[in-house]
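job 3f2a | input accepted
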Amino acid sequence: MFRSKQHYRKPAIIVLIIVLYFLFLTWVSFLRAPSEARAVISGDVIAEYKDFINLDEGSGAGVEEDKLVFGTGDSPASVFGARVPLADSQGIEVSFTVDCPAEYAGSVVHVDLFDGAGYDFEEQEFQITLLEGLNEIEQSLYKGANAPEEAWLRIFILENAEIEMRRLKLHELKENDRHIVLYAAAIVDILILALIVIGSMKKKVGAENVLKYMEP
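job 3f2a | predicted structure (216 res):
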């Protein structure tokens, strides 16, 4: 026995409402998430090895060809730094490689954002313990609250470790606004679909009722 299309109208509307509800919840959760959770790497390289300078001349460290060279002087520490913009980003994505000799395995590379005593926090720092062989690093540094418009990004080792850092690149971390637009567009599309379905069902029901009254 065939059922009229009117019979399926209510279940169809309920399904549309449920889909719309869960899509809306997902969108709200995304909006309320910390900005770090919405950050993505931008396509622009804002600094690389050649933009870094040696901040501790006594260390003997330096920039050579396509690499940073650490730990070749009398000072146990090697400190490099580059100025990076923070005003229009959520932070910096740092990537580099180190081919670590066996005798320096266990050495610790520190990377931080720094701008004097007013901007020097553990939250804006990460540390990498080097393993023997090739170390490929890609990690994010979020700028946090009340960050300056510009700061130093420092890379340093607090021990005498003669290593070479290659393929050093810094990218800005931008907030992913595209997802907000996509979620909003999806919600609007479902609302339009729901209105079309409800409208077409009402027309069909109205036509069926007219035909009933016209029957002899």
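job 3f2a | The chain is about 30% helix and 35% strand.
job 3f2a | closed
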